[in-house]
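User: Some background: our group keeps a shared notebook of sequences we're curious about, and every so often someone picks one and asks for a predicted structure to add to the entry. Today it's my turn. The entry only has the sequence so far, pasted here. Could you supply the structure so I can complete it?
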Amino acid sequence: MIGHRRHFYPSRVPMLSVLFSSMLLAGCAASHSASPQANQAAAEAYTQLGVAYLERDNLARALSALERALEIDSRHAEALQALALVYQQQSENELASQYFQQAVQSAPSFTRARNNYAAFLYQQGYFNAACEQLETASEDAQYANRAQLFTNLGQCYLAVDNIEAARNHLLRAVSIDPRSPRGYLLLAELEVSQGNYGQAWEPLQSYLQLAGQDPVALEMAIDIAHARGDHAAAANYQRLLTVD
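Assistant: Of course. Here's the predicted structure to add to the notebook entry:
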């Protein structure tokens, strides 16, 4: 979901002890007399340590490590966006916004940071700004989570009532990854909101096949079945909802 942010990092927790023991050496290397390569390595090590602490919800230590990384390299995009995530978790929204902006300015092609920034903007209710960030992110054809990105973009356009753009992006999402259920559910919700019950039926069935039966989808199925005049199907979904 667009508001969910914790999963964008691969787990680095097993690296924690190694990184922790190497910090003294990194700290010594990251001096004014150190080579640029040594400083970069130290900044990267502190960044990875900060991310590992962030994944373990140890925000104080994450903050310390990431600030140390930025003392060495003030434009380290990974450290900047990780620090933004720390401040976001602490509800320091102004600081989070500042560091997200610095991250994407420092590395405009850093799609993961831009996607996380869009999620932050969406949570704050800045839907148009979130859509703009996601549109830029969608230009990265090599981004690994591209289907999720287009799903987020569809959800974003739904929030600003741009139905045609939302539909197009959701269709793009399910074409990229036909096994991802969330795009189908959002498509079904979109069509129901427009009174297009016939068009909502197929994506809802795809969602039910992929994700299984949940109350939200079953209630939608009941409404769609009644709207299509298929009262037997509606009764069947009602029984399934009661069982659940």
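Suggested note for the entry: The CA atoms of residues 154 and 166 lie 4 Å apart. Residues 6-125 form a domain with the Serine Threonine Protein Phosphatase 5, Tetratricopeptide repeat fold (CATH 1.25.40.10).
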